[in-house]
Amino acid sequence: MKNILKSNLLFYLLMVINMNAQKTITGFNHVESVATDGKCLYLADIGKELNPTTKDGDGHIIKLDKNGKILDANFVKEILNAPKGLAIDKGILYINDINSLVAIDIKTGNKLYEIDFSKDTSFLNDIAIWDNNTLYVSATDISKLFKVNLTDKSYSEIKTDKIIDGINGLFCYQKENSIYVNGFGSDNKPNGIVGYINLINNQFTQITKTEGYYDGIFIYDDVLYFSNWVSFEKKGIIISMQLSNGKISVVKMKEPISGPADFTIFKNQLIIPGMMDGTLLFAPIKKDVLFIN
After folding, report:
1. Which letter, b or e, does each residue of 159-169 get, where b requires 16 or more Cβ atoms within 10 Å of its Cβ?
2. What is the distance between the alpha carbons of residues 259 and 273, in angstroms, rounded to a whole number?
3. What whole-number distance in Å separates Cα of residue 172 and Cα of residue 133?
4. Residue 155 and residue 10: Cα distance in Å, rounded?
5. pTM (2 decimals)?
6. What sign has the CA pseudo-torsion 209, 218, 73, 284?
7. How confident is the model over 85-96, as a mean pLDDT?
8. Cα–Cα distance between 41 and 271 in angstroms, integer?
9. What's the order of all strands across the beta sheet hosting 23-25?
10. Which residue from 16, 17, 15, 19 is spatially nearest to 253, judged by alpha carbons?
């Protein structure tokens, strides 16, 4: 009995230590996405108003150090409107800004080029890198996935067997030749789904029956993490799934997140934008999950 009590106490202390290690940085407007180049963090801020499709010119990219200290509050020199999804590859920062995919030199913050999607969408959202010449972007307003050819700056639709309503988060998983995706849902209802698209036949497989307002998605150490707003209040959570056995978990947090958006994992930490209240949460992973079979 004493050994059991000691084990339980140790587990509880580990939980407390991990929760206390969490920190939240405040003072942003409406932050939607965070990405890292392995040295610094880059944060997409839609602007003062939560208008993700309005061309108001007040969006910006914030450069931070790995601990969240602001290095440059307006890193990108190009005028941005409502920047959302970010991705970094080979010295280029890619930004989805309403209906344009903008490529930025990460050394200077200057624009290299942009690809216009205005004939198809006004709500480009997440970005996922496949290789040096290919990336994928989600168009949430029309529930479509596009493949982008970076060589000739063209794009084409990936037509799947099932529509993913409000397609949002994307993560390329080359070892399975798949893209993991989720959706924010339709008609302002929490009916989004989570699954993956097999790029050999473009078949979609749903991996959990639970629906929600799903947003960010990331794979780390063969664990799939995805965010669920739950509602348009401060009730958001991060969910994990062991890809080896499908076990579902909820990451233990000090408190719910206000609109957990497009997060990343860096230095063994979840780094999560709180889109609705302009916060950036740092949360250690591994020991702070509560299993909810």
Report:
1. ebeeebbbbbb
2. 8
3. 14
4. 53
5. 0.91
6. positive
7. 98
8. 9
9. 23-25, 279-284, 269-274, 264-266
10. 19
